[in-house]
Every structure is written in C-alpha cells, then in structure tokens.
C-alpha cells in the first residue's frame, strides 16, 4: 500500500486530536442507540400498529419477523428541481427491489429541496443556507419513529445532501446509503452560455436570447451539468464512501442507473442493523472520511459552498474541521480536473474521460487520500477506484482507466493542471475568508485598488447599468450578506457584470461576507469573510475609495490605509431586515447561527 502523504497524515492527526472529546461524545451516543434486534421490536404494540397500519398484509407479516430489515427512505423529491424529479417513482421502485432481498421499505419522510438556480438574486435565496439545517431537522423527524434498521437518502442538490448528512448523523447507529439519480445530458456548451450571459449584462442581447440560451442549457431531468455544488456533492459522497461505487454521474432512467439503485437497496438490506454484517454510519464517517472529502474537493476544483458544508457535516460527526485544515490539504493536492466553470467541459465529459474512478485511483496511487477506511460498500477506498458497467447482463465493476481519455478535462497526478487544489484560506486585517482560485488566471489573482462599497447586490447591479462604477481597477465590496445579516444568499448575479469588467482588461475583485455560487468563476472572489459586518467585522468600517489588497497567491486580504484612523471609524448601520417570501420565519435562525468558518449552522 502506498504511504500516506505526510501533510495529509499531519492534518488528519491534528483534526483527530482537536476533535477527541467531541468525537468521543458522538460515538458514545451512536453506541448507546445501537440495537441487535429490529428497532420496531422496541415499540409498544400500539406504536407498532401505527407503523404498519397502511402496509399490505404481506408486508405486515414480513415486518413481524426479526430477520427482515425495514429500510427507511428520506426523500427530497419534487418536480421543480430537475435533479430531484427522477425520484418521483423511487418509493415504489425501492419497495419492489427490497422484496427481492427479503427486506421492506417505508418512506420515513420528506425534506424540502429548494433550487438555488431558481432563487439566484431573488428574496428566496435568503432562505437557502438555512434550508440545509431545516433539511437536517426534517431528516431527524423522519427517522425519529425509530422503526428502521437502515436508511436510504434520496437527494442530490446544493443544501440537500449536506442537510441529509447532518440529519442522518444523529442516527449514525444505523447504516445510511445515499442514492443519487444522475446528471442531465449535455446541452448548450458552457462557454456559449457564459458568453450570452455577459452579452445580456452589457445590453448587447435581449431577454429572448438569454432565455433561449438558458433553456438550451437546462433542458431535461437530472442534475445541472456544470460543476457547482450539486455535482460537488456527488463527488463528496463517493470520496466519503456513502455511495455505491461509481454511482455519481450516471444518467437518470438508464439501465445502469437502475442497476446502481438496486445495488444500493441490496447493500442497505445486507448491512442493516439487524443483519449479520451491520455497517453503521458512525463507522463510515470519521475524521479520515472528512479529510477524503476535502481532498476530493481540492483535486476536482469543487464548490466554495463546501467551505461551509464540510465543517458543518464534520461537526455533526463529532469532528472539528477548519479552513486552515482545508488550505493545508489544498497545498499538497494537485488539481486533476477542469470542469466548467474551471474549464469548458461539463460533468458528462468528466465522467466519460475517466470520472471519479480515475480521480480516486490517481489519489490512492500517490498516497493522497486515506485508503483503509470503512465505506457503505465494505473496507477500503479501492472499491471506488473502479467504474460500474454491464457485463453479460450483470452489473460489475472494472478498474478505472489507466490513462485519462481527455487530458484537457482530466489529468493524472503526474501531470496536473495545477500542483495545488482550488480553494484557499485568505486572511488579513479585514478578517478570515476563502477564495476559489482554480478558475482564476494567475494574473488576476492579485488586485490592489480602491474599493466601491455596497450593502446589497442590487445596488451594485444598478450602478453597473447606470455606468456609475470607477473607470479603472476597483474592488467590489458587498457586505451585510453573512448568515446573521440575511441568511448568506449567493451573489452569483454579480458574476456576468464583474466578468465583463474583467474581459474589458481591467482588474476587479469581489470581497464579501456573503457567498458566491458553487459555480464561482474567473473573477477573484474573497468570500465568507468573518467576522461578518453584523458582528462588527472590519468590513463594516470600509468606505468608498479605501484601498484594499486582495492577494490570492499569498492568501491575504488587507486594508492599506491608516490603521489607527480605521479602527476609530463607526461601523456602517445594518440595513433593515427584510421580510416576506418566508424570510420572517427564519429570523430566529439568523439570531442563532454560528460564524461562516464553523459552517454557518444553527445547532452549535
């Protein structure tokens, strides 16, 4: 076995030591709730009667038997999310599949699933981050009936998978398997889509051309094909051993997708708590699995949103992960993939070039990930260095390709796109933040210029349209966008305008205590700045014309003026909290939420 890279070993050891007490509490809880007999046997007769009241006579008879696993399904189905629409017939499909393995299934509950692509730039986006924690709580409510011996999680997109993970970890005494449905087919090439968006921002084309381009991009059931948070989620579930190997990027409705779904049901039945070989989520998700997730994020140039989600998921497992850990890992993990917005290819091209099997094979071969971990499939990540295929009508796994089928998209460790990963911690006298640099050209990673300060992204867009922005280089500051201020909405609506300024030959950067999209692109964006403005962070003292220096190479963000004068400034007034569109219902979460560098969660 290849020796683990010393930096990966060092960071993992530091995380384990830091998390020792919290992890011990987590494992004690998981041990306390484990059971050797079916969980439904612990219910009173009246409780149990409610569980099976709507079941068929055969299922009632089966569930009365000790050896029959009852698998709970938590679903995020709705038919407004293209990625989740395929789940509409999964409950009955899974029920039929389970019968073949001597198991029963029940939909334990549903969780909300909002689409960030729909709410970008709209009031509903202020509910987005908190929807993750609502999903975690909804998952807990779903499984709280304590009638299940294993669980299947049906979810793919942005906040849904992290929320499902966080909620399921409160039931980590159970085996838990994530069941994806796959990406849509390729549509309008991503560079063409980005070009039309920029043209629309500049007023060169009308809404009809923009709508036609968007409809050609997002056109069928399945995950959006760019490498944003949704597809980064699927990568993480592979890297953390929560998927059937190779399940991430197979299209919906295909025979291979059906076979992989059936394999998930089979594995849930055979690893259920009352089976002969139980496999608890508590034993799958440990510090090593979390580190493997971070490694995958860096190697593939994944979403900046996981600078929030990974620490939050880790904390739910009793593991304390910091941005410094992520930065340290990024420094030794090479960038192996270029998928839009880090390149022109989409996830279908990435999958065809070798996909996750190739990435994991390369990382294992270079000692850049933990190999000997428990997964839902068994022992060791070698199972995930393979790809699923049909052979003689049967689902089998073969070794991942030895070489990439397209080195413009996917490369080996020996010839990476960059010697380090795509995410960096940025620190300085304005606070602590992160930046995704994998899509930012080196000449754009350092910007020293006056800033223009806004308290709302709409104000920037209005200034852009009115041609009221500086004519030279500048740094766009958008503050009061943190989790306590307004729920930390994504600021992706800024991307086309800022990109057009960059394309015009000027230097520009974004600094914010808010989020960008998982599809953060070529403009340097220093985001998740903490302390946020509402907490009295230095960003609240900035004024138009202040000179800032953003240096993504050195990992610094600084105000360059008189420090004494700056410290004496009064903080800008917080804008009035918005209501309507459900925002008033989340006021208690804004009051309770933790800082961005700890995951922006309301639980700790």
TrEMBL record:
Binds 1 [4Fe-4S] cluster. GO terms for molecular function: 4 iron, 4 sulfur cluster binding; metal ion binding; phosphogluconate dehydratase activity. One of its GO terms (cellular component) is cytosol. Pathway: Carbohydrate metabolism; Entner-Doudoroff pathway. Residues 69-383 form the Dihydroxy-acid/6-phosphogluconate dehydratase N-terminal domain. Keywords: 4Fe-4S, Carbohydrate metabolism, Gluconate utilization, Iron, Iron-sulfur, Lyase, Metal-binding. Its EC number is 4.2.1.12. It catalyses: 6-phospho-D-gluconate = 2-dehydro-3-deoxy-6-phospho-D-gluconate + H2O. The keyword Aminoacyl-tRNA synthetase does not apply. SUPFAM superfamilies: IlvD/EDD N-terminal domain-like, LeuD/IlvD-like. Its cofactor is [4Fe-4S] cluster. It comes from the Bacteria. [4Fe-4S] cluster binds at residues 157, 224. GO terms for biological process: D-gluconate metabolic process; Entner-Doudoroff pathway through 6-phosphogluconate. Residues 409-599 form the Dihydroxy-acid/6-phosphogluconate dehydratase C-terminal domain. Belongs to the IlvD/Edd family. Catalyzes the dehydration of 6-phospho-D-gluconate to 2-dehydro-3-deoxy-6-phospho-D-gluconate. This is Phosphogluconate dehydratase. The gene is edd.
């Amino acid at each position: 076995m290849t020796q683990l890279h010393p930096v990966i070993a060092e960071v993992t050891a530091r995380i384990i030591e830091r998390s020792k007490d919290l992890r011990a509490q987590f494992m004690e809880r998981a041990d306390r709730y484990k059971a050797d007999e079916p969980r439904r046997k612990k219910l009173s007769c009246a409780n149990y009667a409610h569980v099976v009241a709507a079941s068929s006579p055969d299922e009632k008879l089966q569930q009365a038997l000790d050896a029959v696993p009852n698998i709970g399904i938590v679903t995020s189905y709705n038919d407004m999310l293209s990625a989740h629409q395929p789940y509409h017939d999964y409950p009955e499909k899974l029920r039929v599949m389970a019968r073949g393995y001597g198991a029963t299934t029940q939909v334990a509950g549903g969780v909300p699933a909002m689409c960030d692509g729909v709410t970008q730039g709209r009031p509903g986006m202020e509910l987005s981050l908190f929807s993750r924690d609502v999903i975690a709580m909804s998952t807990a409510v779903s499984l709280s009936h304590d009638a299940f011996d294993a669980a299947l999680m049906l979810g793919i997109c942005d906040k849904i998978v992290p929320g499902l993970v966080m909620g399921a970890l409160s039931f980590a005494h159970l085996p838990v398997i994530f069941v994806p449905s796959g990406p849509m087919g390729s549509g309008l090439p991503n560079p063409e889509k980005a070009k039309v968006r920029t043209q629309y921002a500049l007023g060169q084309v009308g809404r009809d051309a923009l709508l036609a381009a968007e409809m050609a991009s997002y056109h069928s059931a399945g995950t959006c094909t760019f490498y944003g948070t949704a597809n980064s989620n699927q990568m993480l579930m592979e890297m953390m051993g929560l998927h059937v190997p190779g399940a991430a990027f197979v299209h919906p409705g295909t025979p291979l997708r059906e076979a992989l779904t059936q394999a998930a049901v089979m594995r849930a039945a055979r690893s259920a708590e009352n089976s002969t070989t139980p496999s608890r989520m508590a034993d799958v998700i440990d510090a090593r699995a979390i580190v493997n997730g971070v490694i995958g994020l860096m190697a593939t140039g994944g979403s900046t949103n996981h600078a929030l989600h990974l620490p939050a998921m880790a904390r739910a497992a009793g593991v304390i992960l910091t941005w410094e850990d992520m930065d340290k890992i990024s420094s030794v993990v090479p960038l192996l993939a270029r998928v839009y917005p880090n390149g022109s290819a989409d996830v279908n091209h990435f999958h065809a070039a070798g996909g996750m099997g190739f990435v994991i094979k390369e990382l294992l071969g270079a000692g850049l990930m933990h190999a000997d971990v428990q997964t839902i499939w068994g022992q060791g990540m070698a199972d995930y260095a393979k790809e699923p295929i049909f052979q003689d009508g049967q689902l089998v796994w073969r070794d991942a390709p030895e070489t990439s089928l397209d080195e413009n998209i996917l490369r080996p460790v020996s010839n990476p796109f960059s010697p380090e990963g795509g995410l960096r911690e940025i620190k300085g006298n304005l606070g602590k933040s992160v930046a995704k640099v994998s899509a930012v050209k080196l000449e754009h990673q350092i910007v020293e210029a006056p800033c223009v300060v806004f308290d709302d992204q709409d104000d920037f867009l209005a200034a852009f349209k009115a041609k009221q922005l500086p004519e030279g280089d500048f740094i766009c500051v958008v503050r009061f966008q943190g989790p306590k201020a307004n729920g930390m909405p994504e600021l992706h609506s800024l991307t086309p305008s800022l990109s057009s300024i960059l394309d015009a030959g000027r230097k520009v950067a974004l600094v914010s205590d808010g989020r960008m999209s998982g599809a953060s692109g070529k403009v340097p964006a220093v985001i998740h700045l903490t302390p946020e403005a509402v907490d009295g962070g230095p960003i609240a003292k900035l004024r138009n014309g202040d000179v800032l220096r953003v240096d993504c190479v050195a990992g610094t963000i600084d105000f360059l003026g008189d420090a004494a004068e700056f410290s004496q400034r009064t903080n800008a007034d917080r804008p009035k909290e918005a209501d309507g569109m459900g925002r008033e219902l989340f006021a208690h979460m804004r009051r309770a939420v933790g800082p961005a560098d700890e995951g922006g969660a309301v639980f700790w």
